[in-house]
Every structure is written in C-alpha cells, then in structure tokens.
C-alpha cells in the first residue's frame, strides 16, 4: 500500500501543487487553466477514453455479468443521487449539480484503476475486466448523462445565445461523449481497432491526466480552498457510500470474491478528473468541485487500506 501511495497518489499532489504554485507565482494566469482544460476536454480526454475502452472485447463485457450489471446499476445510481442531492439539498443549479455528479459520483478509474489494482491483485485478466467494465460505465454512460443534464440546465453555448437545442444531442456532439460511445459500439460489434493506430491517439492521450491535474491546481490558485459540509459530503459519497453499496450488493448476489474486492476498491477511488475538467471548462461548480477533489485525494490515503481490509475480510 505504501508503494501505491508513493508511486500513484503522491504524484497527483506534486503536479497539483506545481499548478497551484505556478498560479500564485504568476507564471501562469488563472485564465490559462481554461485553455488547458479546453485542450484536455476536446482532445486529450476523448482520445484517452477511446483508446482505453476499445482495447476491451465482448468477452470482457460478458465474462462476469454480475460485475457488469452491479457496476452499472450502483455507480450510475450513486451518480444520479449526487446530482439530486446537490440540486435539492445544497441548492445548486441543475448544471452545477450535473458537474457535482461527475465528480462525487464517478471514480477516477481511467487514471488510477490499473495503478492501484494491479500491485494488490496482480496484472491478471480479472483486473483488466474490472477496469474495463467500470471505465465503460463511468466514461461511456455517466459522462454523456452528465453532459446532457448540464445542457438541460441551460449551459450549452446555443442556449446561452438564446437558441433552443436538444440537451441530449448537444451533449452527444461533444467529443468527450461520442468518443467513448463509439468505442463501446466497436467493442459490441466485435470490430477490433488496429493496434498499429494506437500511437495516433496515445500521444495526445498521455497529456490527459497530467495536464488535467496541473490545471486543477492552477484553478485552485485563483480561489480560496474551502472545507465545508458540502465538500465533506461529496467525499463521503465517493469514498464511503459508493464502495459500501457495491460491497453489500456484491455479497447479496454472491459475486466472485476476487472481482468483488477489486470492484469495491475501484469504487473507492478518488473523484474522476473528467468532472473537474468539464466544470472548469464551463465555469461550473469550480471551487467546491476542486476542493472536493483535493480533500478526497487526501482522504483516499485512509479509505483505500480500509476498503482493502474490509473487502478481504468479508468476501
């Protein structure tokens, strides 16, 4: 666990601090974060999502149908609960609530999935199965839903200019939505994406996580970090409620023990950076969202060993 914290969690703090320090020293302006987020949201993130999903196959998707169904139902359910609670309890707009759901209702499986699971459970087919399925749920289902909810709240450029637009179609026109959906369609059709073409996407995809975390730090430098009940609530939903429900439901339906343990730990990962990127790009829920990410990353240092121990004990 110490090895994971040093190799996988510490770099997030370091890069985020560099972004924060660059903003405070005026090496980068606060507005520059918008340019970086636009780069990530329109190019790097869609490429990363496409490449990661298209490497799966139908055997992976249906290899453990319990894993697929439970991951989809619980993660999407918590995602929608985060949206509802942010809108109803904390009185944010629907667009802000959508960004909140993308943060507190989505684990950062693409960035930390293999990095956290493989050292503990090994580089096995089961590990790849868990990461692939949860990546599809988060990236090909939750992101399009979140974008549609955000646009339904009146955030699309067409709506701001006084034009009517369908929120679903508006969301699907974004690369961050159609790229993972296209990848899932290729997987379901059994169309193997040529591996020789991977480098064309991976070169820009590699910029995704680093630039996103740096931009989050730069964004945080332009505002005061807040620690309040909403930030704490978001962390509880992401780090405690989601993995707890995954564990209970997995036990009820008698999932494979190894897959159950990995699914629970994957559900306990910190918030997805895609939510921060989208929020920063559209200037929605930025301060609370970035503060929630930072606090959740710190809290993950405690949450990860806890869920590893609990899942092993009961699975």
Averaged pLDDT, please? 84
Question: Which consecutive residue ranges, at least 5 long each, have pLDDT under 50?
Answer: 157-161
Radius of gyration, rounded? 18 Å
Largest sheet: none
Total domain modules: 1
Number of helices: 16
Helix content: over 70%
Give the beta-strand count: 0
Please identify, by name, the CATH architecture.
Up-down Bundle
Beta-strand content bin: under 5%
* Succession of helices and strands: HHHHHHHHHHHHHHHH
Terminal residue distance? 19 Å
Structural class: mainly alpha
Give me the CATH fold name.
Answer: Na+/H+ antiporter like fold
Q: Based on CA inertia axes, which overall geometry fits?
A: globular
CATH class: Mainly Alpha
